[in-house]
Amino acid sequence: MSAAAELFSRTWVRWLLVAIAVIALAVLPLILPEFANQTLARIGVFAVAVLGLNVVMGYAGQVSLGQIFFVGIGAYVTAYGVQQDWNIVLVFVLSILIPGIMGLLIALAAARLGGLAIAMVTIALPIIGVPLAKRMAEVTGGSQGLSSRFSDSPWPALYNDQWQLYLVIIIGGIVFLLTRNLVHGKYGRAFAIVKSNEAVASSMGISPYRYKVLAFTVAALIGGVAGFLYMVVVQYTSPETMSFGHSITLLASMVIGGAASIVGSLLGGAYYVLVPQLTNLIDPNLTALLQGALLLLVLFVLPGGLVSLPRVIARARRGGRRDPGPAGTPPTSPTRSASEQTVAEGTNTERQDQA
User: Fold this and answer.
1) For residue 218, what are the contacts with CB-CB under 8 A and spacing of at least 6?
2) Cβ distance 294 to 256 under 8 Å?
3) Residue 43 three-state SS
4) Which residues contact 74 (CB under 8 A, 6 or more apart)?
5) What pLDDT score does 20 carry?
6) Residue 146 φ then ψ, to 5°
């Protein structure tokens, strides 16, 4: 174990890092400019959305291409509830429960399917959701969408962008903490077994169907939270929010950040927000091409996503420190010990006697 790994394994070091992170998150919104706060808030929103996708795909190994549908439902429920002057706590609860119930009902039918069949069912969600949102104009606002302004700062000392970022940090932080506890506990171990081999899971008394349904439902609940936070920051939603293109970008963000990783979800949220902004600065017409090239680059160089970069660097450094030996010296096979040679000779003698 290296000195750095040994240091980070100590409990007091971990708590110190947590304290530093909490202090930084508490101070940064007060000192950063408005644009930086808004960008960080949007990164937090989509990090939560990627986290939900990571639960069902990264940890449980089930294909889901409709996570953005649940984000859009959560955003629509929030916007409609605010326009109807519902209590904001009730709006928050409904923005989580309604996508969660929809995810449960869909999972009860789709989880019995396997492979591409699940993918086809989840692909249909954003494809159906967009025209459905346009037709239900009395609830969704049709093609024009809905806007709601409910996240202004309640204190004069805080600007709106600062207050919104604090809301994203607090709510998103709680969601990340609860999800981490979920995937690192018995449910996470069951997800991993179902992901690796469903037959083995069944032989161990673990119901693949039950845990598939659980993963889809949890992902939908987290998607609802992301939809609520989306309205906190953006304060507007439309059918375009749940389009299939956004669903694919969300999937690419999970892959690039790192599947089955909490930190990878944060990196995926950063990719979702920052990379389109950077590619638009280069050439707006080449945005899709540049994003596709970046995805291929990460898949070939870092198959585990950006979260695996420190491990790759550490492995390369360890390989570079190995002594290759004198030039031109052929590799030698490891020599056997005396006891191993004795056993081998005895075995050969027995075979000759039998012959």
Assistant:
1) 52, 55, 56, 179, 182
2) yes
3) helix
4) 95, 96, 98, 99, 223, 224, 225, 226, 227, 228, 230
5) 94
6) -125, 145
